[in-house]
Amino acid sequence: MTIISIIQNAVKQAVLELYNVEIAANEVICSPTRKEFEGDYTVTVFNFAKAARKAPPVIGQELGAFLTEKLTTLSKFNVIQGFLNLSVSTDFWTNFVTGTAKNADFGQLPPKNTRVMVEYSSPNTNKPLHLGHIRNILLGWSCSRILESAGYDVVRTKVVNDRGIAICKSMLAWQLWGEGKTPSVSGIKGDHFVGDYYVLFEKNFKEEYFGWQGTDFALEVIYESKKKAGQTLDEFFKDFKNEYFNNYSELGKQAREMLLRWEAGDAATRQLWAQMNGWVYEGFNETYAKLGVHFDKIYYESDQYSIGKEIIEDGLLRGVFYQKPDTSVWIDLTDAKLDHKLVLRSDGTSVYITQDIAMARLRENDFHARKVGYVVADEQNYHFQVLFEILKKLGEPYADGLFHLSYGMVELPSGKMKSREGTVVDADDLIQEVINEAQNAASESNTLDAFSQEERADIIRKIGLAALKYHIVKVNPKKKMVFDPKESVDLQGHTGPYIQYAYVRAKSVEAMAANAGVDFSISTLPIELHEAEKSLAISLYDFPKVIEDAAAQYDPSVLANYLYDIAKGFSKFWHDVPVLKAHEVEKVFRLKLAKIVARTLAHGMDLLGIEMPERM
After folding, report:
1. SS (H, E, C) 286-328
2. Into which CATH architecture does domain 3-88 fall?
3. For residue 49, how far is the Cα from the chain centroid?
4. Range 545-571 burial, b when 16+ CB lie within 10 A, else e
5. Where are the domains of the chain?
6. pLDDT score, position 280
7. Bond prior to 526 in cis (omega within 30° of 0)
8. What is d(CA 54, CA 48) in angstroms, rounded to the nearest whole number?
9. All residues at 6 or more sequence positions from 206 whose CB lies less than 8 Å from its CB, including other chains
């Protein structure tokens, strides 16, 4: 039971005994005391005034007297208007530090006996992983690790979007202009190689579309008959691009025909598809290895698109879906304040929602998870509202446990990226860039000169990846963000390397203590705590609650920012109080405190996917 829970239960008892009023413990508002006031935790007493028929300051005095008499963990109190500020005894914090120093599992919560599935990454095989994918991957990985530490049984999955019109664009471009080249012959990483052909397709399609816009048919027939009132020529053709691709484009026609051949099982089309996807998978796996992430199960859209059709057909018989005269299949979601949604085209081909329905059924059969999370950018918020509602109407047993870990887009200081135009920042390039920035910072400071070349390379890699990962996950997922490689490696800023440095410093204290032969069996009671010690102990005490909160909110930034606060608190502690030069009792206590700091930072950063160097 946490100190807040102890206080809440004690207040519940006090209100019953003092005012003969029954309340639930969770109705008691108790939070950390603001720094400008004396105390550790504050209870709000305004909401007891009506029942007690007394002024809030009087209630505060009565509750404070009751609590400090009944709870040995509380040493004193003060009242400011309707707020009761409580000070926790020094013995409580010293016992916490002494006990926790022996607990290697501090921060690991008891099993919840609930399986959670987290789906993340889920790339298309027509382009390499880029900066946006990195945010997705890091959010998915860290969220899954935090859920594990919170006691959940976690399964990590990835869906590979390995079929569809976008994939056919890359395939067609290679067929038309590839001249039989391969990644190995070209010296280009497989996913980059295939992505180049996707960009090439879009380039040639734009040229085709631009040429078509100048034809009499486009100007005199299409524009005049389909334009909206007041719509300029440029505005019209910007909006008309998709319709042109589907109905008039020669390249679009060839890409659609390729998709139909693929769905019909044409051998040559399937062979080309398998070859190009194989190149992409080799490239993807290299990037995942660099980021230190993995998956328990990988699903492929190509394996389930027909399953989706079967589910739709069954739902059609049950009245969940309806069919239009053109044979396309839809669902009416207006009762959920959504609209009518297409689930199967008139030509029988699947749409994205069909594949997601099939995927949900497959995962249920494989893992029976009762919570299922999708890590997908906020551009797809509506899509997931629709998907979740459809799964409810289909009666899927996990439907109430679905959640969408929606996140904002990532931009660079130079602005937005566009994969079709080849202006994205590839994940591999970005990883190398932050490692280079870490190398530059180390070269300027000469801090790694004493290490071997291999040791320097490993430390720089860990610093660079910490810079990248922390800079991404410290931001609330729902917020858009700008990633600045140079800013991310700042040892003095709100960065991963800053936290790594605090860890290395805390570990160095441990090492020095071991070399000095410090006797850790010495009792640390009784002892007076310096404010920096107490503040750090209070923050460390919150670690399990922070993990619980981050898991409940599916928000790794809760943990990331907490770890930064711990690092800052340790820096203050380091500067404000002596450690190895302190008296024996204080020395042992402070060494134990430093040990918990190092362990907590290592555990917390590991949950964020960040490795800690032993030296910097």
Report:
1. HHHHHHCCCCCEEEEHHHHHHHHHHHHHHHHHCCCCEECCCCC
2. 2-Layer Sandwich (3.30)
3. 43
4. ebbbbbbeebbbbbbbbbbbebbbbbe
5. 3-88, 162-292, 427-607
6. 97
7. yes
8. 8
9. none
What is d(CA 517, CA 507) in angstroms, rounded to the nearest whole number? 15
Tokens of 356: 């997601």
Return d(Cα 81, Cα 78) in angstroms, integer.
Answer: 10
- Topology annotation, domain 427-607: Isoleucyl-tRNA Synthetase; Domain 1 (1.10.730)
In the prediction, which pLDDT does 215 show? 96
Residue 366 has which token pair?
A: 């494989």
pLDDT in tens, 40-61: 999 999 989 988 999 999 999 9
Q: What is the pTM of this model?
A: 0.89
Alpha-carbon 126 to chain mean position: 24
Check residue 589 and give its pLDDT. 92
pLDDT at 395: 95
As to burial, measured by CB atoms within 10 angstroms (0-12 exposed, 13-18 middle, 19+ buried), residue 499 is buried
Give the torsion sign (CA, 477, 481, 485, 491): negative
Residues of the chain with pLDDT under 50: 417-422
CA distances (Å), origin 290, targets 427, 461, 609? 10, 10, 11
| Rounded Cα distance, 137 and 160, in Å | 13
Q: What pLDDT is recorded for position 513?
A: 84
Tokens of 115: 């399986």
Q: Do domains 3-88 and 427-607 have the same CATH topology?
A: no
The predicted structure's pLDDT at residue 422: 46
Q: Residue 385 in contact with residue 378, Cβ under 8 Å?
A: no
Cβ partners under 8 Å of residue 235, min gap 6? none
Q: Tell me: the pLDDT tens digits for 80-114?
A: 999 999 999 999 999 999 999 889 999 999 999 99
pLDDT at position 421, please?
47
pLDDT for position 127? 87
